[in-house]
Task: inverse folding
């Protein structure tokens, strides 16, 4: 594990309001960032908005406002959503900010002077929503964009091109030497077979048919193609090529792990062109580009035009932020496509949080208050059952850390849920109510000590997702500041004497029918 960690979301295109699909990616990045900080790794977490391009200019005109007014409004809504979702980003970059636009102009100039860029003419099929040119082969007989499936139109214009062939051999070498650079591996195969092997054309990096973009200093008739502009946010936000480059030196250095998390529709730009731009600038490449799956609603892709967009805000207001974050983290594996449905949401919360985790906390606090006057007893002469849980706890922590470090938070949380399941099973096998009746105080104390240890360990391991629950559990079990440290997951049953209080139920059980009706009512 490297000393530093830099993680980024894609910068979201503010052509519509943020919904739970946007929240998914940002929440998963937040979970990974919180985990690294919990492990003591110096971490920087970036998100933001991608605010230039022809589509924004058209949307603003339709709304009767300037492009800047349009993006200001949408960017504010993204920021408000991240605040509600308890996202712990260190920065929010907007590509209309001067700190970004000035540096991007200089980046273009550097690449131009390096003869990576030349002026030419583009003739091809253009997709306005994706702001991408395509060849006859790529659009097929139906003339549809291979990325989004929408109709494309024939377009011709003068533009600057980036020489992709110059950097292709070194890019392929990087792929070979870094097999996890593109994850999942199916995305790597897609890049090779769909875009590189058929023949990679030079990339158009400027436009003249609209003006909502960063002007090219060398030719003010041109504005920069939105993808050259947008991709550079990952280094402009750190102060690259400015007097204040301390963050860039720290988090783009060789001792920093750099992870970009992106959606499937922008994989090509992040895994082919962005590494080439970095090579042209003489900069190191990221360690990982992780491609997350798409989140649909009841089997259909979310879109405002279909009227099936769900905002996380009313979900947070009704169920609490931790339940929303948990569903996004746990319902489907990071990297796979997933589905949001009201039934799945309510059932996931009931199974994992209400019936399993919450019920274990409620039972344990009640039993310690009943049997031991509210104080955690010591572990003494543990038997086979206790040793099994101790061994399982150690294995769980090690597996959890390995999976989190490999960007597999869903699988890491599976390990924690398994420990919770085993702990609940341990209660049934140990039968503390029988031990109490038979006055087997030492054995009863062992059971309580083990339950407390499992609860606190699992709370810490789940805390990157359940950001509000940790403090509630720590308060219930009277943890000192020292005991709250992450390192305590490697100690077993060290909470003797802590005073336990029974708080409100952490996760009340949901009525699936009632909550399904409510969630359907807020879809729009």
Result:
């Amino acid at each position: 594990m490297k000393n530093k960690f830099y993680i980024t979301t894609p910068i979201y295109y503010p052509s519509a309001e943020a919904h739970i699909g946007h929240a998914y990616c940002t929440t998963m990045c937040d979970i990974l960032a919180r985990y690294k900080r919990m492990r003591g790794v110096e971490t920087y977490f970036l998100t933001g908005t991608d605010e230039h391009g022809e589509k924004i200019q058209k949307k603003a005109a339709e709304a009767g406002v300037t492009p800047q007014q349009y993006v200001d409004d949408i960017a504010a809504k993204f920021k408000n959503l991240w605040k509600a979702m308890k996202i712990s980003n260190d920065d929010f970059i907007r590509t209309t900010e001067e700190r970004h636009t000035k540096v991007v102009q200089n980046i273009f100039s550097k690449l131009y002077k390096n003869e990576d860029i030349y002026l030419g003419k583009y003739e091809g099929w253009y997709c306005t929503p994706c702001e991408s040119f395509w060849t006859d082969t790529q659009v097929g007989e139906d003339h549809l964009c291979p990325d989004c499936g929408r109709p494309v139109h024939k377009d011709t214009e003068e533009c600057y091109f980036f020489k992709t062939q110059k950097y292709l051999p070194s890019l392929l070498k990087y792929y070979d030497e870094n097999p996890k650079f593109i994850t999942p591996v199916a995305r790597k195969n897609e890049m090779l077979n769909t875009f590189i092997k058929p023949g990679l054309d030079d990339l158009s990096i400027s436009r003249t048919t609209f003006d909502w973009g960063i002007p090219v200093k060398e030719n003010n008739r041109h504005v920069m193609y939105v993808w050259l502009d947008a991709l550079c946010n990952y280094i402009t936000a750190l102060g690259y090529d400015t007097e204040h480059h301390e963050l860039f030196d720290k988090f783009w250095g060789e001792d920093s792990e750099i992870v970009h998390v992106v959606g499937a529709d922008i994989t090509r730009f992040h895994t082919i062109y962005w590494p080439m731009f970095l090579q042209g600038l003489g900069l190191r490449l990221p360690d990982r580009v992780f491609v997350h799956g798409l989140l649909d609603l009841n089997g259909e892709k979310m879109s405002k035009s279909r009227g099936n967009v769900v905002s996380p805000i009313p979900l947070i207001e009704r169920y609490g932020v931790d339940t929303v974050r948990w569903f996004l983290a746990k319902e489907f594996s990071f990297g796979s496509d997933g589905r949001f449905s009201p039934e799945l949401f309510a059932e996931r919360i009931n199974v994992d949080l209400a019936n399993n985790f919450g019920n274990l906390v409620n039972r344990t606090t009640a039993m310690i208050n009943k049997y031991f006057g509210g104080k955690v007893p010591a572990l003494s002469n543990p038997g086979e059952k206790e040793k099994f849980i101790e061994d399982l706890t150690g294995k769980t922590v090690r597996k959890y850390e390995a999976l989190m470090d490999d960007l597999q938070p869903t699988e890491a949380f599976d390990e924690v849920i398994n420990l919770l399941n085993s702990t609940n099973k341990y209660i049934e096998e140990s039968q503390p109510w029988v031990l109490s009746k038979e006055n087997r105080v030492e054995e009863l104390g062992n059971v309580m000590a083990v339950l407390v240890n499992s609860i606190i360990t699992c709370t810490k391991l789940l805390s990157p997702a359940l950001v509000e629950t940790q403090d509630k559990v720590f308060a219930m079990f009277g943890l000192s500041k020292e005991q709250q440290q992450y390192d305590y997951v490697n100690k077993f049953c060290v909470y003797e004497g802590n005073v336990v209080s029974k708080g409100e139920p952490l996760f009340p059980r949901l009525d699936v029918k009632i909550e399904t009706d409510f969630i359907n009512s807020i879809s729009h």
Observations:
- The mean pLDDT is 93.
